[in-house]
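User: Look at the shape:
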Amino acid sequence: MTITDRFRLDGRTALVTGAGRGIGRACAVALAQAGAEVWLAARTRGEIEQAAAEIRAAGGKAHAVPCDVTNSREVTRLVTSIPVLDVLVNNAGTNIPEPFVEVSEAHLDQLLALNVRAAFLVAQAAARKMLEGKTRGGAIINMSSQMGHVGAVNRSVYCMTKHALEGLTKAMALELAPHAIRVVSIAPTFIDTPMYRQMKEKKPEFAQWVNERIPAGRLGQPQDVAAAVVFAASPAAALITGTSLVVDGGWTAQ
């Protein structure tokens, strides 16, 4: 196998949650381009069906399955429907920026339910599926954030959930390593996604603050994250587990 061959995912099956837009969609497209058969999951059927259709039109293999990952029954149904699973991109998540003292219990519960509880249950279901393959192994990629490594104003709950995901990644990696299942987190900076653009529209000064904080001098693009995901999922990353790939343009180096 040549070094370029080690970045390929031919013959592998990948599941991407939150795949309808932004980072999740970019990851699904990139995994398909690397040769994987991709299952796209999200709550909005139209978005994932469109993305899957575009993948197939480009010669890839893709399936769209609507799923609310906060519903454990739907998660079980989703994972059970996939014949074999080699790669999980545990991407579904959200953020509600607001001052710490103004965080409502409803917002706290909403972020914990999606960013932590649902992420745990999806990862658990995926690991069980991978274990059915016995010696086949697999890769579980948890979509974290640079905020899983540092703190930030108006992001107390988000930081808490992403720090939790970093801890989960380490613990999972230790338990699953004997079964040839690797667990890696990807920690992006601010990425040009619909969620980022909504924040920018509400507070134009927010974009300036972000750009000033990224030493690389630019906002991240979904493809920047997708490239890291393909690497983490591929044989090229065979010895990488229990750690975080920080795609932050130098943010956390400050």
